[in-house]
Amino acid sequence: MPDQYVAWYFTGVRKAKEIFQAENIDAIYSTSPRETSHLIGRTLHLKYKCPWIADFRDPWIEKLHRPKRIQPLEQFEKYLEKIVLRDADYILAAWPGILRSFDPALEGKSQVLTNGFDEEDFRGLKPHVFPKFTFLFAGSLFKELFPLPLFQALDMLLRTRPKIRQRIQLVLLGRQDAFIRDAIKKYELEYCVHIIPQIPHRECLQYILGADALIFCIPDKQCIPSKIFEYLRANRPILAIADQDSDAVQIIARVNQGLCFASRDPGHIARYMSNLLRNREVSDCGIQNNRRLWEFERRQLAKQLAHILDTLVNQG
Fold first, then answer.
1. Which of 157, 210, 231, 308 could share a disulfide with 270, CB 3.0–4.6 Å?
2. Helix then strand then coil, % of the chain, to nearest 5
3. Strands across the sheet with 52-56, in order?
4. Per-residue pLDDT tens for 274-315?
5. Cα–Cα distance between 223 and 245 in angstroms, integer?
6. What secondary structure letter does DSSP report for 106?
């Protein structure tokens, strides 16, 4: 603990000390997962008195797939998180819910710096051509994301409109666990649900650009999947298996109010799918002139990080 790379702590600290002796280091930046990197960052910060940013791309203690600990280890890991948050000069988080899980007293030295998309990844890409109307989920899908309403809605849609069975498909792009495969069999959707194993990132973007609608699932209101920023850049309709007031849906609404439909109700989802089938063409929302979209381009996010580093170094 805190993760399977904890033995790297000793090598990481030793190598970092060699770098400090050879280079003029102005600041320390550690990012998780893996949380061991924050322990390395803290050790270097205490030794060299350099400004230190601890960046949380995922929660630590409230992480979805965090292993269960016996009580003494649980308390010790909470202590590790506490001293990292206490000693860091500045704290970044990928979404607001991560900061909300921390002590409110940290508000004065923390902010959200979201994930984003890289425009270079999209240059020269041609959308993949699908033979059928395609709903696409990009990324790993597993039970904890609560995807059942998606399969229930698809089953409902195909039962009420059997004539579209040969015109529609759901593509799951990435690793899928046994629960997902069992759900596909349970609802007898093998003929229209296609699982494509992991593929190179740019090829994945071609699938995203070519899909008729994009899907993501979130287990709670606070999580913001990083894929939604590439979804936004693709400018395709988005179906979110999520609450309407979730942070992820609010970000999409901020960029383009009409792009996303969010619900956990299979009936509502089935009606939305049916409406998309009737209105297949998607109008261009003018992404090139959408200033709010380009705030999530990674060069713009990198500028924000650079400004934070400059400020800390100057204060130091």
1. 157
2. 50, 15, 35
3. 28-32, 52-56, 90-93, 110-112
4. 999 887 655 445 566 678 899 999 999 999 999 999 999 998
5. 12
6. G
